[in-house]
Design a protein that fits this description.
heterodimer, A: 77 residues, mainly beta, OB fold (Dihydrolipoamide Acetyltransferase, E2P), four-stranded antiparallel sheet, 8 strands, 48% strand, B: 454 residues, alpha+beta, Rossmann fold, Dna Ligase, domain 1, D-amino Acid Aminotransferase, Chain A, domain 1, 3 domains, eight-stranded antiparallel sheet, five-stranded parallel sheet, 20 strands
């Protein structure tokens, strides 16, 4: 299991836009550099990218919820 | 029925500013805050504080029901909306009034009318204020090309219901316009639920000049001279001055008089700003929009006039007739304000929320802010930390004083836009006043902001 951590404090989003599907679902392949979510920090959106490859397990932080820097956002199996 | 107890429906530096103005008038204060803002400076300074919801602004500061319920429960008799959030939301102003409280600002009808670009332009024209050639009303995307023929290219496409630079596109040719108009409509629909568009000729390299006005809602209105806000990045002002430099005296008078005429025509109540584009080469000015709130950059006007605009807003809202007459409002010296944001200017202005590890402010300097040592800046709101304001007899003196003040201020633990302002204060183009709204971004792109050698 690998955790993907939040690089910044802010609001975490699973989806590129409210009507879109989440970036990743359980079982999806994840390559290094793939975007798995967005962090909104001070009205700026920053992509959260995987630093390791793996298989997506689940989001650990809720969609559109506040997160702290270093908090686990998602896990890879 | 002067205000006894004021509810502040905002956060950050403007909440602090409003509390100070209220205190100067002996008004008790209730500060609204989100769960993430319980430790902010305004909460500490206010007599009382009430949580209005979770960190996300949509669930707290933008939640009309929650904010109005909190205001009513607090026993306040008035609500100051600050700027941003619900400040220019007519529905909010109406909800406040329906709850039996005073809204510190214009009537909901005025907010509605001046907040609609088309209706505002019609009101401006009717008051004799020059406007940019454009579509006479809201149009649908399919009409755009035919209407642009009469206006002349390049044209700007805006959402009729828009604001803050959102949904604005520029078309140089009919082909551009045919491609961009449907996009603008889709974006306007998504952002505002209203796909109505509005076309306007683009004035090349304009300066942004705006006039501060005050009215009491009975048709009496005055101006407090103008501000120069041309230094902008991504349509956000970064450095503001008062008065505007190099403006011919007759132009200044015509500009300020036109603002008063519009304020009187709409029976404006409270503090407002009328924004213009100024074509310096042609010495022409054009109305762009009216902001029906106190603005971020109001302090430069306070410095040159000696007025306390926020206190005046509160007195007017409390029912006083216009407390100042035009002949008593004078312009002395030159003021500059810079916005200090929690952003890294050497990393594409990436937001940098952090903990204030140390704070040193030079003596006698006006710094409107909400910082204290140990304060953790929350990541959920905008990046404005505070505004540094200087006043000197001349513009050159004000720039020099700004540079000196920026060198003396220390905000440890955060990245801020201080290096940007130091570079601007040292720039010959800024010193010469040789800039316009399209100046700062190319200046940055050309690498004029360099990390200082340690």
């Amino acid at each position: 299991m690998t955790d993907i951590l939040s690089p910044l404090p802010g609001t975490f989003y699973h989806k590129p836009s409210p009507d879109a599907a989440p970036f990743r679902a359980a079982g999806d392949a994840v390559a290094v550099g793939d975007t798995i979510g967005l962090i909104e920090v001070m009205k700026t959106f920053i992509e959260v990218q995987a630093e390791e490859a793996g298989t997506f397990a689940a989001y650990a932080a809720e969609d559109a919820g506040p997160v702290m820097a270093g908090e686990t956002l998602a896990t890879l199996a | 029925m002067a205000i006894q107890k004021l509810f502040i429906a905002n956060r950050g530096e403007i909440a602090v500013r409003i509390i100070r103005a209220a205190q100067s008038l002996g008004i008790r204060t209730v500060q609204a805050h989100s769960e993430a803002d319980a430790d902010m400076l305004a909460v500490r300074l206010a007599d009382e504080a009430i949580c209005v919801g979770p960190a996300q602004a949509a669930k707290s500061y933008l939640n009309i029901e929650a904010v109005v319920a909190a205001a009513k429960a607090s026993g306040a008799d008035a609500v100051h909306p600050g700027y941003g959030f619900l400040a220019e939301n007519a529905g909010f102003a109406r909800a406040v009034e329906e709850a039996g409280l005073i809204f510190v600002g214009p009537t909901p009808e005025t907010i509605e009318r001046m907040g609609d670009k088309v209706a505002a332009k019609v009101a401006a024209k009717a008051a004799g204020v020059p406007t940019v050639p454009g579509s006479d009303g809201r149009i649908v995307a399919a009409e755009a090309v035919a209407i642009a023929e009469a206006i002349g290219y390049p044209v700007m496409i805006k959402a009729a219901a828009g604001g803050g630079g959102r949904g604005i596109r520029i078309a140089e040719t009919p082909e551009d316009l045919a491609r961009l108009a449907p996009q603008a409509r889709a974006e306007a629909e998504a952002a505002f639920g209203d796909g109505g568009l509005y076309l306007e000729r683009v004035i090349r390299n304009p300066r942004h000049i705006e006039v501060q006005i005050l009215g009491d809602g009975t048709g009496a209105a005055v101006h407090c001279f103008e501000r120069e806000c041309s230094l902008q990045r991504r349509r956000q002002k970064v450095w503001e001055e008062a008065p505007a430099f190099g403006l011919p005296e007759a132009t200044r008078k015509a500009l300020c008089d036109s603002a008063v005429a519009l304020a009187k025509a709409v029976n404006y109540r409270g503090a407002g700003t009328i924004e213009y584009l100024y074509d310096a080469a042609a010495d022409d000015f054009f109305f762009i929009e009216m902001n029906t709130r106190i603005q971020v950059e109001h302090p430069v006007t306070e410095m040159i006039t000696g007025l306390d605009l926020v206190a005046l807003m509160l007195r007017i809202a409390g029912g006083e007739p216009l407390p100042v007459t035009q002949d008593r409002i004078t312009c002395t010296g030159h003021a500059i304000e810079v916005r200090l944001n929690a952003e890294d200017p050497f990393m594409q202005f990436l937001p940098f929320p952090g903990k204030v590890a140390g704070l040193k402010i030079p003596e006698g300097v006006r710094f409107d802010h909400f910082l204290y040592e140990g304060y953790q800046i929350p990541p959920f709101y905008d990046s404005l930390l505070g505004k540094l304001i200087v006043h000197a007899p001349t513009r050159a003196g004000a720039i020099a004083l700004m540079a000196e003040t920026l060198k003396g201020i220390e905000i440890a633990g955060l990245k801020t836009t201080i290096p940007l302002h130091l570079a601007l204060a040292a720039d010959p183009g800024v010193a010469a006043g040789d800039f316009h709204t399209q100046w700062l971004e190319p200046w940055l792109a050309a690498g004029n902001l360099k990390p200082r050698a340690a």
